[in-house]
Structures are given as structure tokens and as C-alpha cells.
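Q: What would this chain look like folded?
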Amino acid sequence: MADGRRRAFIGSFTAAGGPGIVTAEVDPGSGALTVLSSVQAVPDPSYLALAHDGETLYAVSETAEGTVAAYRVAGDKPEPAGRPVPVGGGGPTHLSLFAGHVLTANYGSGSVTAVPVRPDGSLARSASGVLRHTGAGPHTPRQQEPHAHQVQPDPSGRWAVSVDLGTDSVRVCTLVDGALALYRETALRPGSGPRHLAFHPDGAHAYVVNELSPSVTVCRWDAEEGVLTPLSETPVLPGAPARDAYPSGIVTSPDGRFVWTATRGEDVLSVLAVQGEELRLVTTVHCGGHWPRALAASSDGFLYVANERSGNVTWFAVDPLTGVPRRGGSIRVTAASCVALA
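A: My prediction, written as C-alpha cells:
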């Protein structure tokens, strides 16, 4: 940020009493968060993403008639940069920046949307394209139709990949005339319910956390050809859960040695060690709340967890040798849904 202070932005579900978008200051030594402000400019800003220059924050509005909005973040309180833009899809759960556009994954309608970004970081008045997924999976009722849950660029910046829980697949796309165009679709195990994907820092591997089975699918990624190849699955829990586990977030460590996942039904974080083209479950630790929806990892060894149902964001210091997080503290954010680090 311009004043040299580090900040975190926290999304929440206003329909469940959340404060909207929360800005918090980050202590560089301890990773601790201190709330600075909140703003309720759009309902249910459940997922946030920062522009590469750190001057603009983008938020989805996870509602039946989904929108995306832009905010200036020079001060302690985000200021709207124009009106929210309809994404032409329902229930957007994720967004990212790709090739001069904001992309949204629309879970309710099973589609991905591109909205052009103007030179000043604000959004165009309307979306430039909507790509609708097709297909279904064997899990009833969660896979009767497509449910795009995440869309993001690959490390090379050449491709956008969208993860669809309803179709058990990951789509590799290009941007053509302002709209995403399907290049290749990779099938994962039927009934696995892929939710989110995290790339390894080497740019040659990716890890997909599965919501309908407590596991991570390890994949090889060929950025030259745009090919994702599933290799194996690794459980994120030491034993079979007694009920649906609902894994949610996944991040890789900046040094590429570890992968962390969150599992809502068990209220745990899983530590997985990267061993070549395989993962090994090291341990699980309590998430510091209830129903961990999303994770964020900082470059200086801290891990942040948005615990939706307990209404708090917890931070952990990560042991650099073992990858095991150690709880540091938490702040109260009702219906917390994600953390974006500046």
C-alpha cells in the first residue's frame, strides 16, 4: 500500500449478518490482524481479488443475480469505483484477473464470465462474454448440472482454468474477443466434486481439492500445450469421515514444499508434503473456528483461515521445516468467507 502498511481484505456473507468487506492491518512480525473498517456496498461479497498493482479490489456478489464490483483501496476503507456489473450468471463464488478482464465462476448457473477492466482499474459497464458449462456427475443431488466454483489464470498467463464441481472436470480456456472459449476439458474421477485448484510454484503441477470426497487430485500441467493430466489422489484426512466432510480451500506454500487444505465438516487444516509428483498427508490441525471456507498464505510464513460459521478469521505461523501451522490468534468477522492479502 502507498503508506507502507500491509493490509488484508476479508469477504463475508451479509445475508448471514456479515459486515461486507472488512479491511484489516497486518502486523509483519506476528501476522496478527487488526480491523480498520468495513463496507457494505454489495450484498454477499464472498470472494475478493486484488489487482496486480494493489490499487483496486474486486468482489463478487454471490447472489441469484450475481454481480462483480471494483473498489479503490488507497485508504483504510475501500471506496466503490463505479457501479456493480451483472455477470450474467447466478451465485458467483470466485473471481480472478486474466488478460485485462475480471473472470467470475458462477456456481449457480454453471458458467464463467469475463468483464473488461478499464485502464484505471474500474470495470466496463457490462460483461463481454459468458461461457456456459455442460455436463453432470453421478452424485445426487450435487451434480445434476454444472457448478463452476473457481476460475483463474495459469502461472504462464496464457490460459484460464475453471474448476466445475458438478461435471467432475477442469476446463482450460483462452480469451477470444472478450469471451472465454473452451480449449480442452480434463475429466477427473466421477463423483469427486472438484472445487478449487492451486498451482505449484514450478508452474508444472497443480492440485485440485475435491469437495465430494476428502482428497486432493495431483495433476501435471503443461503450459505449452494447455494440458492438465491427473496423476493420483491423496486423502486430506487420516481416516474416513463419519459424515460428509466438505473440503473447501487449498493453497500451496510459496516455496512449493507444502500444500494446505481446509475441511469444513471436520474443522481442520491438512498439511500435505510435496514429494516429487506425489503428496503425503503429514497431519491435521484445528482450524481455530468452525466451517473453514477459505485459506490464504503469505510470503513470510503465515496462514489465514476464514471460518464462516464461527465468524472469525484465524492466523497461524507456519513451521518452515514441517509445514505445520501454529495458531496465533483471531479476529471477529461474522460469516467470514475469504481473505485476500495485499
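The chain has a mean pLDDT of 97.
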